[in-house]
Amino acid sequence: APESPMSSSESVKSLTELVQQPCPAIDTSKDGKSQESSEPPVSESQSTTPLPLSGHSALSIQELVAMSPELDTYGITKRVKEVLTDNNLGQRLFGETILGLTQGSVSDLLARPKPWHKLSLKGREPFVRMQLWLNDPNNVEKLMDMKRMEKKAYMKRRHSSVSDSQSCESSSAGIDYSQGASPQPQHQLKKPRVVLAPEEKEALKRAYQQKPYPSPKTIEELATQLNLKTSTVINWFHNYRSRIRRELFIEEIQAGSQSTAGSSDSPSARSGRAAHSSEGDSCDGVDAEGPPDGKPSGPEALRGARPSERAEPEGLEDTDDEGRLRAPRQSSPPAPQRPGDALETLPNSATEGDASTSAASTSVLTGESSYKSKESSEKISSVPSTSSTPAAGSQKANSLQSLFGFSEAASSRNTRDSSLRKKKAANLNNIIHRLEKAASREEAVEWEF
DNA sequence: TTAAAGTCAATAGA
DNA sequence: TCTATTGACTTTAA
Asked: Which ranges carry the CUT domain (predicted)?
């Protein structure tokens, strides 16, 4: 793929050695502290440690992460996906044995990798692991072995359990009664997972469009209106914001790759929604990074519109339908949403019924629901470049860089990224400016419940 | 204290 | 069975 030439192969081995071999071939600085072969310690150790380099590897994973040069997260996930599918290896297996993550997390990570520079140390870890794994010549083999072993174990278990009937049942559900008293098993009553109804989600999205950072009061009102727990509403906003952000990241990447040379190689490349937002809107919301105005969103956060506002993240679920919503501004940076707009704009198809949800159906509740359309548009591939931050400069980093095998690519990418960044910055400023204007003009956004 | 980041784990769908 | 989605929780940072 992209950096085709270099990537994998060679870098690979060196890194592999670094990680697996008792004596690191290349590396320089890291010296030997400790070392140990961490050969996939794990992989084979099967049950014990799920993680390959966990525990005692020469360099702890954290160290590797810390010293790692900028990695192309998008490219890495792309390759990992390829390898996994080509070899019929599942995310669960991969996640548990290689990354130490659950299937859902892996899925998410592979589908929506954040750019390196946006990741915290912790967040970079899985990518470093993936890179190491990709570099390991025996990666597939090892995983296959694991798979076989698991299967064997499963069969065995199954076998025995069959003979003595309920072993499984008892373990999971029944049993506890025996204890009678034991209080704890009791609250095993896990609370059921909340599943928001489509109308509820719609309402929340609408609310988000007006105020991505709703005040406690607003949250309270929303919760009441929707008959949800406040915590649910709060969580929803947190999750939505963060997911939108990620969605935008990947759009950004795609946009970048598209504008660039080209997605020559990626098969799926062009299919994606080409439209993915003119880069104009692709960034605003995102770069805002923190709570808008820097200050922790308080209630005040609501009052002035904040730049981060962005109508729907188009990448998210309801994109298209909602596209209508954005349509008008599509070619320009999202205009600061006028307060209230969202609601009005929404074509109110409102199936009258919605009420299904809870109580009162009021503005929020009635808006039409356009959810659905989720084609998560294929996210394409092609040039991965994600990051931009120049790789760290220490020698250590350098050596590592060579270990990870990239570097030139990264630098070349940087230029492109920076220009993109500039563009975005300008765009952002523009938006902010407009928002300010709008804010001074019309302040109050009332929730009409 | 709040928001973001990172995950888990339940679930829905294929 | 496997993957994708998503509400909730935990940790981290400001």
From this structure: 62-149
Query: Does at least one atom of strand C sit less than 7 Å from the CB of A230?
Result: no
Give the tokens for residue A77. 């996930």
Residue with more model confidence, A76 or A415: A76
**Protein-proximal positions, strand B, CB < 7 A:** 1-12
Three-class DSSP labels, A53-91 = CCCCCCCCHHHHHHHCCCCCHHHHHHHHHHHHHHCCCCH
Helices A121-135, A8-20: inter-axial angle, 10-degree rounding: 110
Least confident of A83-92, A128-137, A231-240, A365-374: A365-374
User: Span A353-372, mean pLDDT?
Assistant: 39
DSSP category for residue A97: I
Nearest to A377 by CA among A283, A314, A324, A284: A314
**pLDDT value of residue A73:** 93
What are the C-alpha distances in Å from A322 to residues A124, A157, A189, A316?
33, 50, 38, 10
> What is the CA A242 to C1' C3 distance in angstroms?
21
A417 or A147, which is more confident? A147
Q: Is A104 left (phi over 0), alpha (psi -120 to 50) or beta?
A: alpha
Q: Which two tokens stand for residue A216?
A: 């406690």
Q: Which amino acid is at A349?
A: S
Query: Is pLDDT above 90 for A97?
Result: yes
